Prior knowledge:
Order of helices and strands: EHEEHEEHEEHEHEH
Mean pLDDT: 96
Largest sheet: 7 strands, parallel
Radius of gyration: 16 Å
Strand content: 15-25%
Structural class: alpha/beta
Helix content: 25-40%
Strand order of the largest sheet: 4-2-6-1-7-8-9
Oligomer: single chain
Number of domains: 1
Number of strands: 9
Distance between the termini: 15 Å
Amino acid sequence: MTKIFVTGIGTDVGKTVVSAIVTEALQADYFKPVQAGDLHFTDTDKVRQLISNDKTVFHRSAYSLKTPASPHAAAALEQLVIEREKIGLPKTDNRLVIEGAGGLLVPLNDTQTILDLIEPEYKVIVVSRHYLGSINHTLLTLNLLQQKGFDISLIFNGNETKSTEEIILKMTNAPVIGRVDEEEEINENTVLNYARLFKDKLERWINQ
């Protein structure tokens, strides 16, 4: 079972939309280990709304926290401590897309971060969105994953900024799956179109 972990260079860079696209492209299952905030309409709910295939199974989060904050802080408000060993993978024979929370070093507790959820055999997709400071955030994220030996790919989210992307790729040599443009609306059709666009590159990367 191939496991693809979707992380980002920070918060609100498009991880959930990219997770939906990758899930649709591979007709994979989806799992959000830790949901913090938006319990009325979770990231799992958002991805479910954007998926049109009938094969994907949506697995329940290990932790569902009320406050939109770093998981360790949201848990503390509920007098909880997130325990990594209690975040097990759902049982499935299908490919599995796992969506992180925030960036790699967002704390789960006093000693562990989102990075600790990523096992050595996982494929890792990094979502990068351009803003002032995003080069630094993207390089830090990619370099850390490369140092740890993960098999990584990059998806850009938003309009192209050529000079930014060129320096990121020159300095990391990271492979690029593609780009999600600045769309007026993200819906099932939008996700399906990108899924079809990215499918071949995703399959080649997974099977290499």
